[in-house]
Design brief:
The complex is a heterodimer. Chain A is mainly beta. Chain A contains no helices and eight strands. Helices cover 0% and strands 56% of the residues of chain A. Chain A has a four-stranded antiparallel β-sheet with strand order 1-8-6-3, with no helix packed on it. In chain A, a hairpin with a 2-residue loop joins strand 4 and strand 5. The termini of chain A are close together. Chain B has 15 helices and 20 strands. An eight-stranded antiparallel β-sheet of chain B has the order 13-12-9-10-11-14-19-17, sandwiched between helices. Chain B has a five-stranded parallel β-sheet with strand order 3-2-1-4-5. Chain B has a three-stranded antiparallel β-sheet with strand order 7-6-8. The longest helix of chain B has 18 residues. Chains A and B meet through loops of A and loops of B.
């Protein structure tokens, strides 16, 4: 199991993956709006999305878990 | 002398502080509003009263019209100054304020509403006899695009009719790039960003400069031009450095663009402070771009070169007074504004955080508009603009040198800032001689970038 966490505080602008989706390392999973700039949060590992913990307009802090993956 | 009026400032940060300062000078009482992220912030402490709006998320605080109206009613404010950004150009908010019997410090709501459409604004410009950039006067469908291109040629820009800040704008250079996917994705972005999918077309000009005219109009039909501003130094459509006067404008061109700006203001029934933005192409021809219906971030360069407090005149016009001016103003001396952003100077990643140290050099020729202090939190929820340094000199080079000296000594610790990036631009050969165009910074960044230590 792997977690993708927010590297910076901000607002969730978009979630770009769905539960069950297979993703590659480097894929964007969430787009954060930080100071009105969009920041892509990418997964370091490949895997299948098990859980999406945030939704649009959620406020997140550094380290907030955004997405949980089952590693491949 | 204390005036009976109370002004609610529907904003935060440096612009809220700046508006409060003028209100205080005029003897007007002030109400600050704030979110959870701004408890104890400078603008809140400086105001006579304050009202808590809600959570840090701007949709629930500074963009929450219902809650702001509650603040206005509870504090019995007589005027609302919206600053820039947030709801400053939102006609619905202006109308809601007016319905409460409160004075809106800006143009009438119905004028704002109509001018929110770029194609309507372009139509008005044409009717008033202003040159407009070749393109469409109505939103276009994907099918009509081909025909438009046959008329005006490539390259073109597809822009949201109700857009701003370059969001959703697409550059198309040739037939090969013109496909339905690019049109649909522009429409999606326009819908997402501005609530409407409408798109229109403008021809891309050859290496233009952005030059704008500050106007002030009152309810008695007086319209004055207060000077032009050169805002060509931009990165991704965001202005970075502005100056007044423009280094490339002759007295004759100045009179010409003043006339265009004033004709436009009269045509649309404009009241209060506004800015008519224009592009000047490489041949020196001016084109109407759009009108900004608010106080602008870069207004201080006009204030330093005219001696006018624009916010004071905005408030006087909103109170129904006649403008105390006799003629248009001409810039005297030279002012440069640098926008200080909380961002990495090398990769432009935003840098929220807490200010650990803030100290500014003692230099009477540089004004710093800011809401900074040690311990202040630079929130991830709001604009990265944290301060504006505005230098003044008898001429451009004196102003530039003072700015360089000032920025080298200005200390803002705890967050990264773009100060090294600003210094690199100010010290570049192109900036020194005033040789640049709107895409110049982007072009330099794509070809090795600026020397940043």
């Amino acid at each position: 199991m792997a977690e993708v966490v927010a590297p910076i505080p901000g607002l969730v602008a978009r979630v770009t993956v769905k539960v069950g989706e297979t993703i590659k390392a480097g894929d964007t999973v969430v787009v954060l709006n930080v100071m009105k700039t969009e920041v892509n949060v990418q997964s370091d590992t490949a895997g299948v999305v098990r859980e999406v913990r945030v939704k649009e307009w959620d406020e997140v802090d550094i380290g907030t878990v955004l997405v949980v993956l089952d590693e491949k | 002398m204390t005036s009976p009026y109370k002004v609610l400032i529907a904003n935060r940060g440096e612009i809220a502080v700046r508006v409060i300062k003028t209100c205080r000078k005029m003897g007007l009482r002030t109400v600050a509003v704030y979110s959870d992220a701004d408890v104890g912030a400078l603008h809140v402490r400086l105001a006579d009263e304050s009202f808590h709006l809600g959570p840090a998320n701007p949709l629930k605080s500074y963009l929450n019209i219902e809650r702001l109206c509650e603040a206005i009613e509870r504090t019995k404010a007589d005027l609302v100054h919206p600053g820039y950004g947030f709801l400053a150009e939102n006609a619905e908010f202006a109308r809601a304020v007016t319905r409460l019997g409160v004075r809106w410090v800006g143009p009438p709501a119905d004028v704002m509403e109509k001018l929110a459409s770029k194609t309507y604004s372009r139509k008005m410009a044409r009717e008033a006899g202003l040159p407009i950039i070749p393109g469409t006067l109505e939103p276009v469908s994907e099918q009509q695009l081909e025909q438009v291109v046959n008329q005006i040629g490539f390259p073109i820009l597809i822009k949201p009719d109700r857009g701003g800040g370059g969001k959703g704008t697409k550059l198309i250079r040739s037939h090969a790039e013109l496909n339905s996917e690019i049109f649909r994705s522009a429409a999606r972005e326009a819908q997402y960003g501005f609530g409407r999918p409408d798109l229109y077309v403008e021809k891309l000009l050859d290496q233009p400069r952005h030059i704008e005219v500050q106007i002030l109009a009152d309810e008695f039909g007086n319209v004055y031009a207060l000077g032009e501003r050169e805002c060509t130094i931009q990165r991704r459509y965001q202005k970075i450095i502005e100056e007044a006067p423009s280094p490339v404008i002759s007295e004759e061109s100045r009179r010409y663009i003043y006339d265009l700006a004033k004709r436009y203001a009269e045509k649309v029934g404009y009241v209060n402070a506004g800015t008519v933005e224009m592009l000047r192409d490489s041949s020196g021809q001016f084109y109407f771009l759009e009108i900004n219906k608010r106080i602008q971030v870069e207004h201080p360069v006009t204030e330093l070169t005219t001696g006018i407090d624009i916010v004071e005149l905005q408030l006087r016009v909103a109170l129904g007074e006649e403008l105390p001016l006799k003629t248009d103003m001409k810039p005297v001396g030279h002012a440069i504004e640098c926008r200080i952003y909380a961002e990495d100077p090398k990769n432009f990643m935003p840098s929220p955080g807490r200010i650990t140290e803030f100290s500014q050099p003692l230099d009477g020729s540089v004004r710093l508009d800011h809401a900074l202090e040690a311990g202040a939190v630079i929130s991830p929820y709001y604009d990265p603009l944290i301060a504006k340094a505005i230098s003044y000199g008898e001429n451009r080079e004196e102003s530039r040198k003072r700015m360089v000296d000032y920025l080298q000594k200005l200390k803002i610790d705890g967050v990264k800032t773009n100060i090294p990036f600003l210094l690199a631009i100010l010290e570049s050969d192109n900036f020194r001689v005033g040789d640049f165009y709107t895409n110049w910074v982007n072009d330099v960044l794509e070809n090795g970038g600026f020397p940043i230590p």
